[in-house]
Amino acid sequence: MSTFQAPKGTYDLIPPRSATFLAVRDAISTPLRNSGYGYIETPGFENVELFSRGVGESTDIVTKEMYTLTTKGNDHLALRPEGTASVLRAALQANLHKQGNLPVKLWYSGSYYRYERAQAGRYRHFSQVGAEAIGAEDPALDAELIILADQAYRSLGLRNFRILLNSLGDKECRPVYREALQSFLRGLDLDEETLRRAEINPLRVLDDKRESVQKQLVGAPLLGDYLCDACKAYHEEVRALVTAAGVEFEDDAKLVRGLDYYTRTTFEFVHGGLTDERGLGGAVTLPEDAEAHLLRVAGGDARRALTALEAAAGAAIAKREPEITLQTVEETVDRAAVKYDRDGDQHYDVASALIKSIRGSDVDAALHYLARMIEAGEDPRFIARRLMISASEDIGLADPNALPIAVAAAQAVAMIGFPEAALTLSHATIALALAPKSNAATTAIGAALADVRNGLAGSVPPHLRDGHYKGAAKLGHAQGYVYPHDVPGGIAAQQYAPDEVRGRQYYEPTRYGAEARYADVVERVRTRLKGDE
Length: 533
Prior knowledge:
The chain is mainly alpha-helical. The protein contains 20 helices and 9 strands.
């Protein structure tokens, strides 16, 4: 047994929780990828100066929280405490902004490090997904990021969150506000360190969480009162675009960011849970076994997890228990703690049973296995992928609509997440189970692949070869090719397959469903290709 443990304030991601982590990261990044943001990865450490200049010398991140080191070559490095500075450095170093197609849209994911007081829910090592749009100042870009973040959180099942929105002004109006705020802060009874910070970056004082400071900040000047006309117009356009997208938000005149690189639009997503005063306020704790069960029964749906958490916490508080036990969770959500192991044999057994029930046209059995997978917390995208495969493998041209239905279901699942995704998966499962069946497409490609793998891959007939390059005609390429659109019926009697497989018939259509008409068509086409008609 190892005597080593992870450093204080850090954590290991191991199965099965690592699967949840990957699913969450993928859900957050999917809207970004779909909107043209390219992935960027930067080193885990950078020059200290990058963060002191980019983040701000007065910030706690730089003055107190960075892990720094000096190399043998006397380079001063720091483990990255946040992502923006590194991404901008990499983009500028690679001259991405000079290659056209502005803005440069990038998303990133990785581990970050801050030396903070380790406590429940706060780590010195944390993971983050972020995005940057570089090279253009446009309200549409600001609104886009807010909308994409909203889509990402909703795809995880989150609903009861709040979006706070404000403007920080720009280099024209922000200095005026900065001077007014500094004048106000100088009249307060603040400690020497806070006063020093106020002279360097007064917005950092507004971020101070100490109650003694917050009480004195009542009546502090608000940034919104100092915005120039250009910033006001910019902010109003952001608000209008977000509203037009159907995304609800709250204007928060006190929302600021102390990091030096922030200008104009700033926003924040807020959700209370165990520790937030608007949630359970730290009234109870949640042990790992109870937490694992909550995550399992939630099935990747954050809303279901929060609902179950609230019920379990209420029961624990009613029993005057300091923690939410596994038994309490089981009692309140009315589910047994033992479901099938998503990483074990039953994961594949139930998935196999779902597909075989669809293949066998037993719609009720298929829905039963689908329900078991949903309740066990199966990734809805895994289920959707299996349905897409089934549509081609077991239905094919017997119902040409089967594959579009399955693909549409997969796209919908990726956009909406659980619990609503269960409706989409049910829709697709019923359609596939009741569709006429044919495995002709499966056996056709299987037979063709077998011939190729057995060496029957002869030369392409000369008249089918590319004739567009210089000298092709001298080689006989494309000579004698008959353009099918020039002949009656659109089918030219000429050889298409290599000599080695000429006459082989891979596709043998069934007489089930819509494929029956393909059976008549393929017979007629093969006859005309031979020139017998």
